[in-house]
Design brief:
There is one protein chain. It is elongated, with a radius of gyration of 34 Å. The chain has a six-stranded antiparallel β-sheet. It has a two-stranded antiparallel ribbon with strand order 1-2. Strands 3-10 form a two-stranded parallel sheet. It is of the alpha+beta class. The C terminus is likely disordered. The protein contains ten helices and twelve strands.
Amino acid sequence: MDDQPSAVIPSVPHETAAQRVRFTWNFLLYPLIRGPVCLTVPLDRSTDQPEKSMLDRGVEAPPLYAQVARLLAEQINQGKYQPGDLLPSEPGLAKELGVSRATIVKAFDTLHREGLIQRQQGRGTFVAPRPKRHSLSELTSFTAVTRAGDGVPSHRLLAYLEIGSGDERGEPESAFPAAQDLVVLERVRYVDDVAVGFHRTVLPAHLVQRAGLTKDVVAAADFSLYRALEAIGQHPWSAEESLRAVGCPAELAGHLALAEGAPLMQVRRLTRNRTGDLIEAVVAHYVGSLYEYHTELSSHPAKFEKEGPGDESTMDRGGDVRAVVAERVRRGAGQR
């Protein structure tokens, strides 16, 4: 049997015994060596979660929760996760990264405070919508701003109140004369079905009647207040607006899916028609992470160009909108 040639180990003519033993040893071990080498081929990295190796576990490294939050924030900002996308579950992400679930919870808390994610009870954690931008130099409605940003605006009417001349008045009703009858609208404003703000809007009762703004009309999903005012010739022409940061009142927390005291942007606006009559007073509260204001500043005075006789002045890009108002006031005084 020993004289028969091996079926798996080829013979080499004139080989020595030592060469024969060495060749046999290498040939038999080759599969054992080759196997592990094949298994060390780099794995596919195109997964939806960060790899464990991306976390620095050194002594001087940032806390693991902060590193996880940074990795997910980078993926959100780079577009790997789009607004509305469901993020990996806390247990799944903890297993993928080799960290505790408490670390993932703390990382999600950080992203939630930064407005990058939203938690929905029983559904999971989702990427938050992009903040809607509103220019400080433009007098536009919430509906127009949302549609300009390719969002879908909607609202929910919470209250439709009629205030008589003798009724007690608060904010912003006090902006109108005490003898004027008013209508108050309280609405939650949505973008793509996500609550982003609360509006308390006060209107002169006679304009509400002229426009036919009954409770049912206002409650319609596609209702636009500015469009209704324009339909009766009451175009919003100018406005005064002020902004400040406030804590979320308890009565708004549930409507905006926030904790009491969470940061909100409060906006107060007084809107006038072309003749200077006050046609709207609003106190609005916006979720700061979902709504942003934008303005452009310039170190040089605003420049004006006359488009023709009787035309209003226009302001170069970057000028101060208050200069436009001042110019109109000066022009009106000169005419008088």
